[in-house]
Structure formats: structure tokens, C-alpha cells
Amino acid sequence: MANTFRHGQVKIANEILDQLAIRACKEINGVHNSDDSTNKINLQNQDPKASIGFIEDKLNIDLTVFLDKNVNVRKTVKDIQENVIRIIETMTGISVGRVNVNIAKLEI
Q: Around Cβ 52, how many Cβ atoms within 10 Å?
């Protein structure tokens, strides 16, 4: 994605937008991170994953997350969406159209 400013142009790779969305997602309580898991039996990477797309000059983000047990799923998803929009728009100036959250699993 490229933005033009008074003194030049800035290009942001989609991978950077992916990482910003994942970082914003990890900041929310209830999102499971493999970093803080003490269970070494399941070695599958369970960090959030992001996919970026653009529709009508707006950024659309698809997130896949694992949630911890005993969380309010509805509230957690709303918090994820709001935090991702805030972080992306504040750090890049790119308008976010949608943040779709797919819950892959509830960790027990």
C-alpha cells in the first residue's frame, strides 16, 4: 500500500500490515499465544494469523485466532476488532474497512 504525502511517498508492505494486525490482536486479554503456553505436548503454532486485502481503497483484515478458556467470546472479538482498527489507522493512516475474526479453537 502506498500513501503520498507532501514530501514524498511511503510504501508499506502487506507483511508489515499483517504483523501490525497480529501484534494488535495479541494485546487483547483472552487471545492465546504459544509463547506463554507451558504445554509443550502440542507444538503446533497457535499464534494469531492475518491476511490482508484491499477493497475500494479500504483495508480488509482476516484474522484467525485461538482464544483462552473462560473468555467472553463476543467481548474478546469486539476488543480485537477495535484494537486492530485503532493500531492500523494510527500507525499507517490507512482506513480499515473490516476486521473479520475467525476463532479456530478455544484453548483449555
A: 19
| Residue that is written with C-alpha cell 485503532 in the block | 86
pTM for the whole structure: 0.83
Helix 14-26 to helix 73-92 angle, to the nearest 10 degrees? 140
C-alpha cell at 39: 504445554
- The answer to whether 97 touches 59, Cβ cutoff 8 Å, is yes
Residue 13: all three cell numbers together? 508492505
Task: Order across the sheet with 58-67: list the strands.
Answer: 49-55, 58-67, 96-106
pLDDT, one tens digit per residue, over 36-50 is: 555 544 545 677 899
Query: Which amino acid, one-letter code, is at 99?
Result: V
Q: Tell me the sheet residues that pair with 24.
A: none
